[in-house]
């Protein structure tokens, strides 16, 4: 993709043209694989960069521990 724009970047990610979720049978099909740089992969998958909902705050359950009087 970079070469099409006249830019030379190292390809560090193998992109599945047909998503694995939709076509797991094409996982290792060479016609379905494309070498891309990280920036191009982010452009191909903008949904992966979106922030997800803020995680819900979890309340910690606090317990009080006491020494066993039989051992002391």
Automatic annotation (TrEMBL):
Pfam families noted in UniProt: HNH (PF01844)
Record's keyword terms, sorted: Endonuclease, Hydrolase, Nuclease
Keyword Hydrolase recorded: yes
UniProt-listed InterPro entries: HNH (IPR002711), HNH_nuc (IPR003615)
Annotated HNH domain residues: 1-46
Magnesium found in the keyword field: no
MF GO annotations: endonuclease activity
Protein name: HNH endonuclease
